[in-house]
Amino acid sequence: MLEKESLVLMSRVRFARNLEAVPFPHMLDRERARDIVSKVEDAFYVSSAIKSDYTTHRMWDLGRTDILVGFEKHLVSAKLINNSDISAYILENREMVSLMVNEEDHIRLQCMQNGFGLRDIFKKADMLDDLLSERLTFAFDKNLGYITACPTNLGTAMRASVMVHLPGFTLADKVSHVAQALAQMGMTIRGIYGEGSQAEGNIYQISNEVTLGLSEEDILTNLESTILSILDEEQVNQMKLLGQYTSEIEDKVYRSLGILMNARVMASKEALYHLSMVRLGIELELLKDIELNIIDNLIISTQPGMMQKAYGIALTEKERDVNRAKIIRSIF
Amino acid sequence: MLEKESLVLMSRVRFARNLEAVPFPHMLDRERARDIVSKVEDAFYVSSAIKSDYTTHRMWDLGRTDILVGFEKHLVSAKLINNSDISAYILENREMVSLMVNEEDHIRLQCMQNGFGLRDIFKKADMLDDLLSERLTFAFDKNLGYITACPTNLGTAMRASVMVHLPGFTLADKVSHVAQALAQMGMTIRGIYGEGSQAEGNIYQISNEVTLGLSEEDILTNLESTILSILDEEQVNQMKLLGQYTSEIEDKVYRSLGILMNARVMASKEALYHLSMVRLGIELELLKDIELNIIDNLIISTQPGMMQKAYGIALTEKERDVNRAKIIRSIF
Start and end of every Phosphagen kinase C-terminal domain (chains A, B) (predicted)? Predict the structure, then answer.
């Protein structure tokens, strides 16, 4: 069995910030809102290093496919898309940092990293926050902390989240227990694409829900230790399943591998399911010649928007399913 | 596309014969019935060649597994099994000829051959029938022909049948049309294990139904030409399906191959389905490195009784499913 941290696909930290004495985005007319985008750019692009590493994408200039791809890569949120007429995002070329402007708040600064690494990305986000606050004054109250459009984000206005693969909990039908326990600790578990989305491919996001009354340090410490204990329990679940249903688990893993290697037509949901089963096989060390990051990249690159981006929007859904199967075969 | 004859898995011819002035098996007590077995043996084992090529299996001496294996190999019929207390079969070592004694009739002589070859096996059966009639007098009427326990077999008392793979008809949902047309020509189409059995794996048996008023030659000529035209139509069906649903057909074929190569647990029905899809892939020349006889052997050797024979009856159904998957993987 691999080390438990291998169950983590991605870590993310985001800060919500608002400009002092400026109404929240939903209260702004188009001109004032777009002016915020310029203000943030002025405050951010202060060095030649930043200028060469980052690019601004104005949502009102982007096509549907680019927007969908940004969403699937977790670079833009559903709310940023809803605000497309006034919103933008500044994206690092490595796509590990994005600054969304005029989402629910004026600024949503997000840093991501593959695998389990909340501390590193918190440092990165903190540094960029310091940079921005040199030229922008953020709405802040000494009792309430950072002022945000939605009161649930008051305080640190920080959400730290980790994307985890929990096939053991899912197959043992225990995800609802985790959800209850997390809720009591001010944390939450969601599907792969955030609130309201389903946990396709047994992939979940676990994040802090409470932002007020705790320091960033407290939030990170609590979340890290909680996730580590969930990962321990996931490994116990996996070992129990493997012990009790050895051939059934092996069967699921190898069939999924056989189907991924051979199918000629595959919808994105089905791809996610089989990729999850193969990931489980790697986690359990049944499959030893496949690297986890190959699976994790396919989980993202076989999503509908990524397929449209790669093959053009003129493709029918069926043609995308054919090309998806082709991409997957070419990787294995 | 392979030649149409490749759609035929097996050809069989069987003659029903009854001893003159002896009641049919269901009217005999045990002693008289078992005496028939000895009489047939005396008439049959007349040369040292026959003695070395054939063995008698008395059903009352056989275990359940051996009986089931004989059934799955089409060497014994359900009725022979029902009569186990009085029935026997004389089997050629190559298992291409079997003489069932005390089935519905005193003698059921059956010759089989892989692939399409009704003429050759008819000659073989005819020769063995001549051999038997040198020492046995068969019940025969100049108007009714050979007298049989069931009047539907009167006349030639011959049934010729061909086991064919018809995935094109099945996927196009046209098997019932074939059945209707065959009925009008005095022929019939059945599932893989005869009357009342299902057409698992898209495998069917087509045989003459009418035995009275036609010569053996007529029956064989009609059946051959009818089957060849069904095989032509099957190829048209396959090409149409492939033309119209190219990626779906390829997907079915390759997924089945991937599953057969990777599954760790497989029930016999599922194995038949995937073997049928892979056979279709070979027929359509999508798969070029797999020989048809490998598939046809697996279709027989993965049946439940064959699995019991190979691994012992102590295995649970699940253990058999695990071993079946293992055998299939070892072949591919």
Answer: 7-237
